[in-house]
Amino acid sequence: MAEIANPSVSIQNVSLNYGAVSVLQTLNLDIADGEFIVLLGPSGCGKSTLLNCIAGLLDISKGRIFIKGKNVTWEEPKDRGIGMVFQSYALYPQMTVEKNLSFGLRVAGLPKDEIAKRIARAAEILQIEPLLQRKPSALSGGQRQRVAIGRALVRDVDVFLFDEPLSNLDAKLRSELRVEIKLLHRRLQNTMIYVTHDQIEAMTLADRIAVMKGGVIQQLDAPQTIYNRPVNRFVAGFLGSPAMNFIEGQLQAGDVGAFTTDGVSIPLDRYEFDKDRGSAGMPCVFGIRPEHVAFGDAAKAMPFTAESAVEIVEPMGSDTLVWTKLGGRNFSFRVEAEKTLRTGDPIRIGFDPARASLFDTQSGNRL
Amino acid sequence: MSDQAVSLSAPSGAGHADASGPSGPKPRHIFSRRNIFLYGTLIVAALYYLLPLYVMIVTSLKGMPEIRLGNIFSPPLEITFEPWVKAWSTACTGLNCDGLSRGFWNSVRITVPSVILSIAIASVNGYALANWRFKGADTFFIILIVGAFIPYQVMIYPIVIILREIGLYGSLSGLVIVHSIFGMPILTLLFRNYFTSMPEELFRAARVDGAGFWGIYLRIMLPMSLPIFVVAVILQVTGIWNDFLFGVVYTRPDTYPMTVQLNNIVNSVQGVKEYNVNMAATILTGLVPLVIYFISGRLFVRGIAAGAVKG
Description:
A: Rossmann fold; 2 domains; six-stranded mixed sheet; five-stranded antiparallel sheet; 21 strands; B: 311 residues; MetI-like fold; 14 helices; 72% helix
């Protein structure tokens, strides 16, 4: 990975332990100026904890945190140059929207006209001018989250921290606000760190995604790379909906090499191995995403084809997920919604192993 | 109400195949067995508690000759407010013959500062315990809770000595301090649980906004905690106003609170027992907590629910 010359946020060997429980383990992360980085992972993976450590709301056990080149490890949250948006909005219920926005500025003792100027700007950007005199209880979820973003905006900070900001919204609002956050980032060009467990938010928003598990960053890369070349089986399984197909089997030696499982042999001559080529006979897991599987006539052109029968058809509107069996295991693939398949229909499926992923069963790492 | 519900349900069922079957809201009968049993029990329970109050009120409005007839349940033939006036302003306790009025003002001078002081300290305690998890916070909290279970009587004599040594024994301020300290465990528990039930993110947002310990307490937490303050005020006003033990131990006759004076009036062994004056004096003494309940009953229930369920 290329070194980042002047990181906006730099996390160096940060650990956090609660007694014997280790929540973050010697974590390193450099975030470039103006970058949108998403911390993605299942609940309990430490992503929110890491965000709170960056914000200064949690004390770390080891390591250092730099923001804009300044060591802020021991600084109070307000002195770190950060603004934070919370999942539950965390608006002060007894204050109007305007007072909510200005609270931090009033605490900091800014002059009145400066406060008014900043609120006007934030309200204009987020289009919440008509709401300024309302109490949070009179706002809808989407409006509340906009005000919460505004509260970070008026602070005029270098780094924005988002802690699952869209999780409390319904699906439609979520996708609307997702676009707005992206537009906001384009307009402000601030560094943004965004925590979520929603892979669609991660894929759509991020410049880079850090997939976390058990307090460790599993993979840090551009969304497409993470999606197409996951470094281990956890990352492969966590990203993608419907999920990747996994088939357990062995690596077969030979000139070209192949992956074999009950009566199925998949040639690996087109597969791009990582550094680790594995050894003959070692158990491994073959993974392929449902959308990379062709069927019918298109399958014939593929380097690997197999005959099977339709088991279950799941129409999802834009396309249809078809479940079948390959090597005795459940196997799903995507077809256009127009294709009408019924349970029991014989089908031909095929795919290009170049688009697949191969993992060592024992370590879970990509081969 | 129930008639309307039944008539409304009729047309909506018409279009269906089974038009005669149940449809719409279920009809309710006022005189069902369940209702009779429920309200019967409630009425009996209410009468049980209201009857003594009734006896007190009618007796306090009777003259002594009428009381001697012995019909304690019959309403007064001739209403007189003489006993109330006497109880308030001329009844004798020991050497003083200025009635309960002296005790009333003593009680006010004890209750008001004790309530304010104890709630002010306990709310900050609870806030610190809930939001600023300092080292040893849990131990401190457990010690405080244990304090709530130690019987007061155990501590009476040591406190007498302490107050004597610091020169506050027998003064009102000494009693105020005692009341504030003894209110601390339960009030701190109450406030801690209330503040714990508030969303943690609110506190974090305020920290990111740069507010400190007092800033968050005064500007964020206080405005949100009216219900729990009402609960605390009610608990403390009734507790301190009704207190007898500390009042009689830590004050002198001229600073006795109302409850102690009431006892001295009712239990005086000289002369005729004036039941009407005793009843009037008792009602007068109980009036303050009663008024507090009536004014803030609804808030009280809401606050109890908010503070006690969680944590």
